[in-house]
Write a structure and sequence with these properties.
Helix content is about 40%, strand content about 15%. It has about 350 residues and is of the alpha/beta class. It has three domains: about 5-50, Orthogonal Bundle (434 Repressor (Amino-terminal Domain)); about 60-160 and about 300-325, Rossmann fold; about 165-300, Rossmann fold (3-Layer(aba) Sandwich), CATH 3.40.50. Helix 1 (about 5-10) crosses helix 2, helix 1 crosses helix 3 (about 30-45) and helix 6 (about 110-115) packs parallel to helix 7 (about 135-140). The radius of gyration is 25 Å and the shape is elongated. The chain binds a DNA duplex (20 and 20 nucleotides) through helix 2 and helix 4.
DNA sequence: GGACCGTGCTCTCATCTCCC
DNA sequence: GGGAGATGAGAGCACGGTCC
């Protein structure tokens, strides 16, 4: 039988008010009483009832993030690291991070239930779209949220994002420096804002390097491993003279599929084909000592920390120091990039 | 179908106690 | 007696259940 505030106050011979205030650390309760209450709460295993607290405070002490199992967001190591940083920062404020799985790619009904049911105090919108109905819905509702990524018109709401055009530019520059001229590009659907910006960045970087872009070497996929795998098979099916010598993949889930297909075809990364993957591939995902060259976030964990701080400020109705946070990516060399194989 | 109650907690304001 | 600090009473929160 769980101990509630009433039980605890009866045990101590104090009113529920004083016990509540003592546990909340109010200075108008004497330090001796606060300590006595704290010890009794510990001894009796008292845990505040979250539902009652929510009713009293009008607060859920939780932040939500919705993901769609139709994609492999939870298979994305960077995304998981971001979640860890976010959860850690929220936890420090006694706030939970709730992950809600949408049954389809249409996440709006889940958003609606979370907002109208007051299940959370704020939401983090991940993997933003160019035109994002979730952002519109939250703006119309006046519900606090932070977007992990921008939209086509990134104004009027707080966001945290990376310079996606720079991501592709760094990847192309690294491959051009290694001597590549025929570079393929595999991207996520362009309705994702990050994919659109990285795609634009790739085209701009190729233009700047005065290199041709073969439309057959720009392949659209999805945020799934099998899409990266299929894209690789498509590139490998090209006649040898037309086949690119290097590939940039704009996301690490597709990148894993791409690597799997290249290895299955007996290719040596960095020799027969060079590869740069956005967001990077953890070493323990691969085998054979492959270190995949990557363009990465400084650390995904710290990104989650930053988003967590923004969300906490919103929940506490404090002004955001920096409502729009744009971070610069970095190129991390690896043995998946080498000079183009002679033909 | 409407009124009322119960749930567990926090908040505001009133009251009590102590000490100078 | 008055001020400061400690404590308590009661309202109110959202919503489901019960009663008339």
């Amino acid at each position: 039988m769980p101990v509630n505030l009433k039980d605890l106050s009866a045990h101590l011979g104090l009113s529920p008010t004083t016990v509540s205030r003592a546990l909340s650390g109010y200075s108008d309760v004497s330090p001796a009483t606060r300590e006595r209450v704290r010890q009794a709460a510990q001894e009796l295993g008292y845990q505040p009832n979250r539902a009652a607290r929510q009713v009293a405070l009008g607060r859920a002490d939780a932040v939500g993030i919705v993901y769609s199992p139709a994609t492999e967001f939870l298979g994305n190591p960077s995304f998981l690291q971001m979640l860890e940083g976010l959860a850690r920062t929220l936890d420090e404020a006694g706030c939970d991070l709730l992950l809600a799985a949408a049954p389809t790619e249409d996440e709006l009904p889940i958003y609606d239930r979370m907002v109208r049911g007051r299940r959370v105090d704020a939401l983090v919108v991940a993997h933003t779209l160019r035109e994002d109905p979730r952002i519109r819905y939250l703006q119309d509702s006046g519900f606090p949220f932070v977007a992990y990524g921008r939209t086509a018109r990134a104004d009027g709401f707080p966001w945290f994002d990376f310079d996606n055009e720079a991501c592709s530019r760094l990847a192309v520059q690294a491959l051009v420096a290694a001597g590549h001229r025929m570079i393929a590009y595999v991207h996520a659907p362009l309705h994702y804002n990050f994919a659109f910006q990285r795609h634009a960045g790739f085209l701009a970087a190729m233009r700047k390097a005065r290199l041709p872009v073969d439309p057959a070497c720009v392949l659209a996929g999805s945020l799934e491993r099998r899409a990266g795998y299929a894209a690789a098979r498509q590139l490998l099916a090209m006649p040898a003279a037309q086949r690119p010598t290097a590939v940039v993949v704009d996301n690490n889930i597709g990148g894993i599929g791409m690597i799997r297909a290249l290895l299955d075809a007996g290719l040596r990364l960095g020799h027969d084909m060079s590869l740069v993957v956005n967001e990077g591939i953890p070493e323990d995902t691969l085998f054979g000592g492959i270190e995949v060259a990557a363009v990465t976030q400084p650390t995904a964990f710290e990104s989650g920390r930053s988003i967590g701080r923004m969300v906490r400020a919103l929940v506490e109705r404090q002004p955001l120091d920096e409502p729009h946070q744009l971070r610069q990516p970095a190129y991390v060399p690896g043995n998946s990039v080498g000079p183009p194989a002679p033909r």
